[in-house]
Design a protein that fits this description.
This protein has 289 residues and is mainly beta. Helix content is 9%, strand content 39%. It is built from 3 helices and 14 strands. Strands 1, 2, 3, 4, 5, 6, 7, 8, 9, 10, 11, 12, 13 and 14 form a 14-stranded antiparallel sheet that branches. It is globular and about 45 Å long. The N and C termini lie far apart (46 Å). This is GH16 domain-containing protein. InterPro entries: Beta-glucanase-like (IPR000757), Beta-glucanase/XTH (IPR044791), ConA-like_dom_sf (IPR013320), XTH (IPR016455). Keywords: Glycosidase, Hydrolase, Signal.
Length: 289
Amino acid sequence: MALLLSLIFFFMFPLGNNGEGPPSPGYYPSSRIGPIGFDQGFINLWGPNHQSLDQGTLTIWLDKSSGSGFKSHNQYYSGYFGASIKLQPGYTAGVITSLYLSNNEEHPGNHDEVDIEFLGTTLDKPYVLQTNVYIKGSGDGNIIGREMKFHLWFDPTKDFHNYAILWNPTQILFFVDDVPIRRYPRKSDDTFPLRPMWVYGSIWDASSWATENGKYKTDYTYQPFVGKYNNFKIDGCAAATCPYFRFSFRPKPAEQPPARGALVYVQDNYKVYDYCHDPLRDHRLTPEC
């Protein structure tokens, strides 16, 4: 039985680099930024009765009555935004647990967004981490998503892992435990978010699309669905004091080794979807591809 479970885990969460996942990026941006308490950086946005804070760990949960979300005090032009997150094990199909940037409250129907979203799953399959970038879009059918999806080299339900977005005037980088997994460069002003955004986190029911394009729905016999967050990190250019879009945090470029080696390794071994390579997409709408 132990051998069978080990084989199941291996195929669900494949490892590389001698069983240790991607190679070291050689640079650890999260180590340069001290953590802040939840109350220092964030407020409850919705579902206050589905949110609790205990010794620095924020727990949010979804049940049949509600989910929950939180929002940063400040709006930012650029910066590094991260948190350590631990996901719900078991059946979580249809459930989204997220950390993201958005200005939808200020620009409804015409907003920018940068997403880290964990797509809930069935009992026999691993989580999918979806990254996405929207530019001047909305959820009304006109949105142009730029999704890139990954499996992880570990089980994200076993422990906290750090997930982060770095957004500056030249690029957007997505990190998992300081490993860059995606780089979205600024190729034109029309394909890059340039307006300030808030930082958000949430857990909610997205049964219509979250798990295998809506094939599997949220099953509330498994409720509550829980997401845990701690080790919040923000190093950003707050819009209230920042006169324009500029560098607020400068990591070593992801295209230089060894960071590029780690990025390429993840892209080669753990990427499971890339909008630029989707034959069903109209790539006239995504000229950066």
